[in-house]
Amino acid sequence: MEQLLVYFFTYKEAIFIIALSVFLGIEVIAHVPSVLHTPLMSGANAISGVIIIGGIILVGHADATRLSGELIIGILAIVFATLNVAGGFVVTDRMLEMFKKKKK
């Protein structure tokens, strides 16, 4: 428990920035009009693609003989970014379907 407190006190600025960016991101995304949603999702998919590449590089450089923090973070980054990309494409496809003309 003491190591956790030392970690938080050592990196309190970074933790504050991450928490602030989460709240700011939620506020920004909540007020995006539906017309801008598709380009925003495309940008998020591109960023998640970069995260997948970074996770693959991190896992490739991690020590595979033991369960290290690098390995866990890399695997989680790959899984969550892949889910984000797949979900983003599904949502973008649904949004684009709304703009197509209906068949009679």
Describe the protein's architecture and organization:
- The structure is a single chain.
- By secondary structure, the protein is mainly alpha-helical.
- The protein has 2 domains: 31 residues; 65 residues.
- The chain is 81% helix and 0% strand.
- The protein has 4 helices and no strands.
- The longest helix has 31 residues.
- The chain is flat.
- The chain starts with a helix and ends in a 5-residue tail after the last helix.
Give the N-to-C terminal Cα separation.
65 Å
Number of domains: 2
The string of secondary-structure elements, in order, is HHHH
Gyration radius from CA atoms, angstroms: 19 Å
Our count of helices gives 4
Structural class label: mainly alpha
**Major sheet characteristics:** none
Which overall shape is indicated by the principal axes computed on the Cα atoms?
flat
Mean pLDDT: 84
Q: What share of the residues does DSSP label as strand, in percent?
A: under 5%
How many strand units? 0
Question: What proportion of the residues is helical, as a percent range?
Answer: over 70%
Residue stretches low in confidence (pLDDT < 50, at least 5 long) are none
Question: How would you describe this structure in keywords?
Answer:
mainly alpha, 81% helix, 104 residues
How do the strands and helices of this protein lay out in sequence?
Elements: H1 2-10, H2 12-30, H3 37-61, H4 69-99
Helix pairs in contact: 3-4
